[in-house]
Design a protein that fits this description.
Blueprint lengths: L2 H18 L4 H18 L11 H9 L6 H14 L2 H12 L4 H16 L5 H18 L4 H12 L9 H20 L10 H29 L24 H23 L5 H19 L5 H23 L4 E2 L4 E2 L3 H26 L3 H31 L2 H10 L4 H16 L5 H16 L6 H17 L5 H9 L6 H24 L2 H10 L2
Antiparallel strand pairs: 1-2
Helix pairs in contact: 1-2, 2-15, 3-15, 4-12, 4-15, 5-6, 5-7, 5-11, 6-7, 6-8, 6-10, 7-8, 7-20, 8-10, 8-20, 8-21, 9-10, 9-18, 9-19, 10-19, 10-21, 10-22, 11-12, 12-13, 12-14, 13-14, 15-18, 17-18, 17-19, 19-21
Length: about 525
């Protein structure tokens, strides 16, 4: 064994020990490599000049406009959660199904898919589903295990259904790894891999998962049709948590605005109208308008103004797409005509609506908490990104990229064996690390090696995203299980929670196997949309 391999083993072992010690992950990821590298340099086995590249790497993170989309999407999700829009969607859908057992289960699944398409924050989604839908499902006679498993599995859909923070971060790293792999192969002008490609690639697998979950609920309801309600005296929710006698008017007023928001965000990305960062900004603005109009304390004038703001935004889109707005911000030119005047008036109305919504939501104590949570989550994400840059630098300084390439080349099954080994490692790391750490630690190391083969980068990224989602569900350390345990009543045992997710983990593995065997599930839509 070479001295570089020995130091790499020391680095990996020290890193795992640092993470498991309870030290903040960001500090462990950055501090352990620096300490190991310094000790190795004293023995003449590491060149400290590698650290000279670290400031440039940090500047590259700061200069990456794609990553600006992360805090914007986080803010969009926290606003939806704190303004109770997602909660009303769940209650309305459940009431529309009449509170029946299968109806409640399907409503949880449908609303979870919509929430996933609006926010990628699984913790908040699982907590909300556990607090609101669990009491109603148990009263309706849905078993504890089906209720628990469905909530945990549905809450993780935000990992795979776009716009997902996981896909945004994966898109950045997969793009870099693919470019490096192609340059190493002598191709200096490869087709770039964008976040839009990953969004399009994940749509079919994501909704395939929803259908598989729904199929399991259907089969379970047929096999166990006479399940009886369980005692729920210890639950905190009142009896009327789920609305009754919900009609189409309630459905339309509750679901049309979020659906239009999802279409605006995803559509603008998939059809090339906006970048992911610009689409995220559109999503935040649309969420402010929806939150302002749908809040239970909203006066009538505010709701009217929010509708006018949404109409103004739609008018601006029409004017821009048809070329009727003769305003060019890049060159600073303005031609006064009917189109430009209409654009200026629409902009003024939209800005007024957004300002009024901000003031109102601040008074209702929605904005403050949402911004604080966004700053906390974003700081964690960017801290891990910067720390992972240091780890990657030290890893390469020890020749780790060459060692990994050599190890993967010796695995039986050639590149397919290497792919399965990498997926197994990612799955196991998902027990102890957040997805951000896995993406920025593992992908830069193994990505260039695997993508130097014939593997499609979008297909590989979708497999990684589905793998991460599976690790969130798998006992005993799945993070989704911990989130659910925090809100589940005491009479639901932890072992019941573990057993409840096993069928959904099997479904996840089946879905991964389908994508693995049929890459077109992940590559067809990107090829069609971005031909």
């Amino acid at each position: 064994m070479s001295i570089e391999a020995i130091w790499l083993l020391i680095l990996v072992g020290s890193l795992l020990a640092g993470i498991m010690s309870g030290v903040p992950v960001m500090l462990a990821i950055a501090g352990v490599p620096v300490l190991v590298a310094y000790i190795a340099s004293l023995m003449g086995h590491f060149d400290l000049s590698y650290f000279g590249a670290f400031p440039q790497r940090v500047f590259g993170v700061m200069d990456n406009s794609l990553l600006i989309a992360v805090p914007l999407f986080v803010l969009m999700g926290t606003l939806l959660e704190r303004s109770r829009i997602a909660e009303r969607m769940l209650m309305t859908m459940a009431g529309f199904f009449g509170g029946t057992r299968s109806g409640l289960a399907y409503s949880v699944l449908i609303v979870s898919a919509l929430i996933a398409a609006s926010t990628g924050i699984i913790g908040a989604t699982i907590v909300m589903l556990g607090m609101i839908s669990l009491p109603a499902m148990l009263r309706a006679g849905i078993s504890v295990r089906l209720s628990s498993g469905l909530i945990c599995a549905s809450g993780t859909l935000g990992q795979i259904i776009p716009p997902s923070i996981v896909l945004i971060l994966l898109g950045d790293q997969i793009s870099n790894a693919y470019l490096e792999a192609q340059r190493n192969a002598g191709n200096f002008a490869p087709d770039p891999v964008s976040v839009g490609d990953l969004f399009a690639g994940a749509l079919i697998p994501g909704f395939m998962l929803v259908l598989l979950y729904a199929g399991y609920v259907f089969i379970h309801s047929k096999l166990f049709p006479k399940a009886s309600p369980v005692p729920v005296e210890s639950l905190q929710a009142p009896e009327d948590t789920i609305k009754a006698a919900v009609g189409w008017a309630d459905i339309l007023s509750t679901f049309v605005p979020p659906l239009l928001l999802i279409i605006a965000v995803l559509g603008s990305i998939l059809f090339g109208v906006a970048t992911p960062t610009e689409a995220a900004a559109v999503g935040v603005a649309g969420t402010l308008l929806i939150a302002g109009s749908s809040h239970e304390q909203s006066p009538k004038y505010l709701r009217v103004l929010m509708v006018l703001g949404a109409a103004a935004a739609f008018l601006l889109t029409i004017l821009k797409s048809l070329g009727w707005s003769n305003i060019d911000f890049s060159s600073g030119t303005l031609i006064i005509d009917a189109g430009s005047i209409a654009a200026m008036v629409a902009t003024a109305v939209l800005v007024l609506a957004l300002v009024v919504a901000l003031v109102f939501l601040r008074k209702q104590q929605v904005i403050g908490g949402a911004v604080q949570e966004t700053v906390s989550v974003s700081a964690m994400v960017f801290g891990v990104i910067v720390a992972a840059s240091m780890l990657s630098l030290v890893f390469r300084g020890f020749g780790g990229d060459e060692v990994v390439a050599d190890v993967l080349s010796k695995i039986p099954g050639e590149h397919w064996g290497a792919l399965i080994a990498v997926m197994l490692v990612i799955f196991l790391l998902g027990f102890v690390l957040e997805f951000v750490e896995i993406i920025f630690i593992v992908i830069p190391i193994v990505g260039p090696v695997l993508l130097a083969t014939d593997f499609h980068p979008v297909w590989f990224a979708v497999l990684v995203a589905m793998n991460l989602q599976t690790s969130f569900l798998t006992p005993p350390f799945g993070f989704a299980l911990f989130y659910y345990r925090s809100v589940a009543p005491a009479h639901i045992r932890t072992v019941d929670i573990y057993l409840s997710v096993i069928p959904f983990v099997i479904i996840q593995l089946i879905a991964m196997l389908l994508v693995l065997c049929f890459p077109m599930l992940a590559t067809w839509l990107p090829d069609v949309v971005f031909d």
